[in-house]
Design brief:
Cathepsin D, subunit A, domain 1; 9-stranded mixed sheet; 9 helices; 9 strands; 20% strand; elongated
């Protein structure tokens, strides 16, 4: 009989859930705070321990598993319009990883099943995960490039001591500039940029969708690093985006001198990026 120790089960699931959530953030192009990821992974590890000890019943039902998974994703990424999309991505990555473990059990001549995961060493689990991470990353990037015909790179934004790594599309069609300085403007989804701001500033940005009112509230709160940038797009003759000047901006290894505008909508529309930068 194969014996699984509680502490071993907990820490293996903690590490695996942590990595799965990090990959979900990477492939979705949404910045994730490591403490939030650790909290969600701890929740997943505790559930795995509880489900194993209970053995059957409500705790191992699909309804409860989906609820726990949705809660984990919410802890990391918050409640937003993209929550369902991110959850489906997390679920798909988890399913693919579980399939890799089952496949490794078949290769070893064992009967595949839920217990197979417990009989695999942590090194084998991480190896299986690494293979599927490479495959998922290649597939998502290929789909994104095919649909956008652009180049996706990491945009590192620094603001008041905080830093966020955001997946950005290098788009030759983005000609947005700040009219006074003439500097280019990168457009970023608000949700991806929120980790850059402190609590009061993030609350104003999250609560107030009207850029004029948001700017007024920010000024009243003593935050003067924001401004309005006019833009035109398909179906929009003229509009305004709330923008800020970051302390540092780097696209890959190249330093940029640019403003960052915040879009209340999902810039990438699920294509693996959350910002658009002019080529």
């Amino acid at each position: 009989m194969y014996v699984i120790y509680a502490d071993e089960l907990f820490f293996e699931n903690l590490i695996i859930d942590y990595i799965l959530l990090i990959v979900t953030a990477r492939l979705s192009g949404i910045a994730a705070r490591r403490l939030r990821v650790l909290a969600a992974a701890t929740l997943g590890a505790l559930y795995a321990l509880l489900a194993t000890l209970s053995g059957a019943g409500f705790w191992v039902s699909w309804a409860f598993k989906i609820t726990v998974g949705l809660l984990m994703v919410t802890v990391v990424f918050g409640a937003s319009q993209r929550l369902l999309r991110v959850f489906l991505l997390f679920f798909g990555i988890s399913a693919a990883f579980a399939g890799a473990v089952m496949a490794s059990a078949i290769v070893r001549g064992e009967s595949p099943g839920a217990a197979a995961i417990g009989r695999v060493s942590l090194g084998a689990l991480l190896l299986a995960f690494g293979v599927f991470y490479v495959l998922f990353a290649a597939v998502f990037k290929a789909v994104a490039r095919h649909r956008t015909r652009g180049d996706i790179r990491t945009l590192t934004v620094t603001y008041r001591g905080k830093k966020a790594a955001i997946q950005a599309l290098l788009d030759t069609g983005n000609g947005l500039h700040e009219p006074v300085s003439g500097l280019p403007v990168a457009v970023c989804s608000l949700e991806a940029a929120l980790p850059l701001f402190d609590g009061p500033t993030a609350e104003i940005l999250r609560r107030e969708s009207d850029p004029y009112r948001a700017l007024e509230e920010l000024y009243n709160a003593g935050v003067y690093s924001f401004l309005l940038v006019p833009y035109r797009a398909v179906g929009v003759k003229t509009g305004m985006l709330l923008a800020f000047r970051p302390d540092g901006l780097r696209l890959g290894t190249r330093e940029l001198s640019s403003f960052v505008a915040l879009s209340p909508d999902d810039v990438g529309e699920g294509l693996g990026y959350s910002a658009v930068v002019g080529a």
